[in-house]
Amino acid sequence: MIRVRGVSKSFNGRRGTVEALRGIELDVGDGEFVAVLGRSGCGKSTLLRVIAGLLPASSGEVRIADEPVREPRRDVAILFQCPALLPWRSVLDNVLLPIQVHGRPRSEHREAAGQLLSTVGLDTPFHKRLPHELSGGMQQRVALCRSLIQRPRVMLMDEPFSALDALTREELCEVLQRVHMEYAATVVLVTHSIEEAVLLADRVVVLSPRPGQVRTVLDVPVPRPRSLGHDAHAAELARCRAELHDLLLASHMTGV
Ligand SMILES: Nc1ncnc2c1ncn2[C@@H]1O[C@H](COP(=O)(O)OP(=O)(O)OP(=O)(O)O)[C@@H](O)[C@H]1O
Fold first, then answer.
1. Block means of pLDDT (10 residues each) for the chain, length 256 residues?
2. Of all protein residues, whose CA lies closest to atom 8 belonging to ligand 1?
3. Most buried in the list 93, 188, 227, 248, measured by CB within 10 Å?
4. What is the pTM for the complete model shown?
5. 218 within a domain of the structure (yes/no)
6. 68 lines ligand 1 (CB under 6 A)
7. Is the distance from the beta carbon of residue 18 to the nearest atom of ligand 1 less than 6 Å?
8. What's the confidence (pLDDT) of residue 231?
9. 145 and 156, same structural domain?
10. What Pfam family is a match for this entry (predicted)?
11. Measured from the CB, is residue 16 less than 6 Å from ligand 1?
């Protein structure tokens, strides 16, 4: 589904050239959930933006559904750290925004929007509220629904929960697992949180410090839904966490 081949990216700035990514190779299968993990500045967001078609690669190629990505695609949704809801529109109208932007009738999608909001735990009384009447976690749930309303094939997420407190993040990880199981979208999540990566992903791709290169890929062979609390597979989750922790720490010490 997503095929990244030999992607490198350098930025030319006033202080010279920054090599952000070097020779990234990555395949993400249909319905797979892949987390890209690495320390700050290793090129995670750059990789996601190249996959999204928001940024051209310096060399190499990204293909989605066997087509080269040269610009943002309609069937690819992107979720950022900031929910970026329109403050004057109700929750329901924010979710319906992509429908309106693409000139499709809102009335046909109102029910789907309501269902999506219920799936993420926002029932009818919330639908008429304005964004400022919601907590940060609730706003991010609305942004998640807005990205799902068009039934994307692929969801790209850049640290979507990093501005939230630890418990809210965990709650949203639970929501995201449910949404992923229900909608079966292919997901690439960028994060610097080992916990998040292990809770959510089928595979965790660890990038080395700049220039970002694929250092290792770890399978998380644990059935969903997963939890940080009592989980029958707690030992396996802990093993994956420890392995990723050691890898990230080692790459910090050696710089590879
Ligand atoms: N538009 C740009 N112009 C110049 N340099 C850039 C640009 N975007 C990113 N960089 C540089 O590329 C490198 C990788 O940045 P990127 O944001 O992809 O890292 P990251 O792993 O997502 O970091 P973080 O976890 O802190 O968000 C950094 O050194 C950054 O300063």
1. 96 90 97 95 96 97 96 92 94 94 86 91 93 94 93 93 87 88 90 93 94 95 86 89 91 57
2. 46
3. 188
4. 0.92
5. yes
6. no
7. yes
8. 77
9. no
10. ABC_tran
11. no
Ligand 1 touching residue 40 (CB < 6 A): yes
Do 134 and 156 belong to one domain? no
167 and 133 in one domain? no
Q: How many domains does the chain have?
A: 2
Q: For ligand 1, say whether the CB of 41 is within 6 Å of any of its atoms.
A: yes
Question: Other C-beta atoms within 10 Å of 161: how many?
Answer: 25
Handedness of CA 235, 238, 243, 246 (dihedral sign): negative
Cβ of 88 closer than 6 Å to ligand 1, yes or no, is: no
Query: 133: domain range?
Result: 85-151
Q: What confidence score (pLDDT) does residue 178 get?
A: 87
Q: How far is the CA of 20 from the centre of ligand 1 (A)?
A: 7
Ligand 1 geometric centre to CA of 216 (Å): 20
29 and 46 housed in the same domain:
yes
> DSSP class of residue 240?
H
Across-strand partners of 206? Answer: 37, 216
CA 80 and chain centroid, separation: 8
* DSSP element (H, E) containing 203: strand 203-207
